[in-house]
Amino acid sequence: MNKHLILWAMSFLVTVNLWGCANNPNNSTATDTKQAASQPIKLATRVVALTPLGADLIYNLDKSKLLAVPAGRYTDVVAKAKFAQLPRIGGRGNINLEKIVALKPDLVIGSETFQGQILNKLKELGINTVSHETRSWQDLKTLTEDLAGRIGADPKPILDKYQSFIAQIPENGKSVLVLVSTQPTLSPNRNSWSGDLLEKFQYKNVTGDLQANTRFQGYLTLSQEQILATNPEKIFIMESDNVNPDDFKKLPFWNQLKATQNNQVYIFHHDGLISPTSVNTVEEVTNKLRQTALN
Asked: Which CATH superfamily, name and number, covers 173-292?
């Protein structure tokens, strides 16, 4: 073939190709997307959970993928039988990094607030991590879907449970004060798990619109004067390993409140109203909120 004819043909093809790209700005993106979609997603099969919620969700989604869990009330007492055969990697603020690495996980789930540093160290070692903070009902659903996707499980059975937990919410509108601790007197605003739950069950959280003033997002310290000024119809007090409900009754203003005078003080466990530690604790706290609204 004539040399000039070959050069002309090549030039024509290049021109046509460039014209096509210029008139199809999505061409590169579409190709990249197609290539990415054709590449198999590597699912996690060896998961270490640093939080009770992470451990419980993986257990419910596919327990064969769960490699180790944190030590604590939920894993060692409440659901001891469920997690009896799994190694512990330390408590909330005392995680054993060496033990985690030795287990060779391909995914580690932890709390952004309490385990951020150790999650960053694991990232540096090339281990995939998920950091979470569950401050709303939507956060809980999103975390469940995210973890399910990472291990190739179906989140629908758990999501359906969540939906059933918030069905048939009674008309409410009663004012409530949630007291998390006595020294200082902490209470949640709307930007917290408990604050979001109260709204879902139509309680009027008297500290819902107040600005957080502690290192914990969504929580504020109240003065005696502020508590007396709110004078709520109901008071929810916490019980936990570190908080005795009887301590609230020793507060100097306690008997001056309408809720205490009308016997409208209710005890909730920290694991549920303040932190969703498992699917079961979420069910328990929603049942109690529903029942309390009727009293």
From this structure: Nitrogenase molybdenum iron protein domain (3.40.50.1980)
